[in-house]
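pls read this stuff:
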Amino acid sequence: MRGGKRTGSGRKKKPVHLKRNPVTIRLPQFMILRLKRDGEIGYLIEEQLAKKFRELPEDYDINS
């Protein structure tokens, strides 16, 4: 078999409760600059929020 889509190949879909959705927030300029300097803004904010949540889903992984 050559080329084309293969069954079972590709990235597996995440459960609905783990799907990431865009959210718009307003931050002061100094915070934005600091976040950009330290890395990917979305992942930095998600990481900080995950530390504050008491209950996270069993299958939650910040790196996925």
Observations:
- Residues 21 and 42 are 11 Å apart (CA to CA).
- The chain has two helices and no strands.
